[in-house]
Amino acid sequence: EEYRKLQPQWDVLLDLDALGKTENENWVWGGSDCLAPDYKHCLISLSRGGADAKVTREFDIDQRAFVKDGFNLPEAKSQLDWVDINTVFVGTDFGSGSMTQSGYARVIKRWKRGTPLIEAEVMYEGQETDVAAFANVDKTPGFERITFGRSTDFYNTEISLLVNGKLIKIDKPTDASLSWQREWAFLLLKSDLKVAAKVYKSGSLLAIKLDDLLKGERNFELLFEPSATRSLSRSGPSTTRDFLLL
User: Fold this and answer.
1) 3-state secondary structure string, the chain?
2) What angle do CA 208, 209, 211 make, to 5 degrees?
3) Which of 105, 102, 139 shows the shortest CA–CA distance to 124?
4) How far is CA 246 from the centre of its chain?
5) In this predicted model, what pLDDT tens digit does every residue of 175-185 receive, in sequence order?
6) What pLDDT, on the 0 to 100 scale, is given for residue 6?
7) What is the pTM assigned to this prediction?
8) Exposed e or buried b for every residue in 73-108, given b needs 16+ CB within 10 A?
9) Alpha-carbon torsion (117, 119, 125, 128), positive or negative
10) How far is Cα 110 from Cα 88, in angstroms, rounded to an integer?
11) What CA–CA distances, in Å, run from 150 to 88, 165, 226?
12) Per residue in 185-200, is it b (16+ CB within 10 Å) or e — as a string?
């Protein structure tokens, strides 16, 4: 009895089995994106039987229910990212020409709450030969950023930062993985990078101020260099508020 009292008490937010039974669907969890800083409104993705294509619906944590007339996408290989409580970036099947040859979103639009999806404003377009186009909204206080990009294949990406309504392409090797935390940007190299007389080895992790990178500067700080017996995890670094974890 005492042991039972020490066990965590789980609060069920959404019962997929019950939902599937009610809607006569074999729903499989497909992920969620909750709006910071309150995390009360979430974009929940569900797939039929675990398929790549997903249905996305807005969910209210306090109400334990999907939002009536909220953001709701029909089944497709979609992506959504919160901009604010009334706005999302959405890439989905908008019709002819809106998907890549790989079957993913080619066009990213800004969708306002309460408006038809067909009226959403185009923000970014990739090419039909790309794997996919994507958007990212960083809500870190004081370092809010919006980026758009395209995966030209499974190994190469192009990323642009939205500044005063204009897209500025970030000058990086297309096969290097880019991440950032506040003012810092990190590049995980997949091939050698030559800067002036110096060569940074494939597998190295470099740091630079993001503003400097945007200005075209190359004053990289070498955080990690591989050796014959040591390499960095393929997933790259992780960040906390004050530290970089390798």
Assistant:
1) CHHHHHCCCCCCCCCHHHHHHHHCCCEEEEEEEECCCCCCEEEEEEEECCCCCEEEEEEECCCCEECCCCCEEEEECCEEEEEECCEEEEECCCCCCCECCCCCECEEEEEECCCCHHHCEEEEECCCCCCEEEEEEECCCCCCEEEEEEECCCCCEEEEEEECCEEEECCCCCCCEEEEECCEEEEECCCCEEECCEEECCCCEEEEEHHHHHCCCCCCEEEECCCCCCCCCCCCCEECCCCEEC
2) 130
3) 105
4) 21
5) 999 999 999 99
6) 67
7) 0.87
8) beebbbbbbbbeeebbbbbbbbeeebbbeeebbbbb
9) positive
10) 6
11) 18, 18, 28
12) bbbbbbeebeeeeeeb
Note whether 124 and 151 are within 8 A (CB).
no
Query: Measured on CA atoms in the order 64, 69, 75, 76, is the torsion positive or negative?
Result: negative
Helix (H, G, I), strand (E, B) or coil at 146: strand
DSSP-derived secondary structure for 21-35: HHHT--EEEEEEEEP
pLDDT tens-digit readout, 38-62 = 999 999 999 999 999 999 999 999 9
Distance between CA atoms of residues 124 and 137, nearest Å: 14
CA–chain centroid gap for 227, Å, is 31
